[in-house]
Design goal:
Elements: H1 14-40, H2 50-57, H3 62-71
Helix pairs in contact: 1-2, 1-3, 2-3
């Protein structure tokens, strides 16, 4: 069995590189926005503990989206 060679960023086509960078920027923006909202929101306006939501937001894509859909009250 041959080992799979790990693909490096520089081996991607320019279009693939653009897609990866765009998705990374969107993910980071979502997380930063969610953490900022969490930090500024009073604890009584958050469903559960702020520490729990801070950890959940760190989960790629699903964390920030879940926070915005279920973590905020009002």
């Amino acid at each position: 069995m041959t080992a799979r060679r790990r693909r490096k960023f520089r081996d991607l086509t320019p279009g693939q590189q653009t897609l990866v960078l765009t998705l990374a920027a969107v993910q980071l923006s979502l997380a930063a926005t969610a953490w900022t909202d969490l930090a500024r929101r009073p604890a009584d306006r958050v469903a559960g503990s702020k520490a729990k939501w801070a950890a959940i937001i760190a989960v790629n894509w699903i964390g920030p989206i879940t926070y915005f859909r279920r973590g905020r009250i009002g």
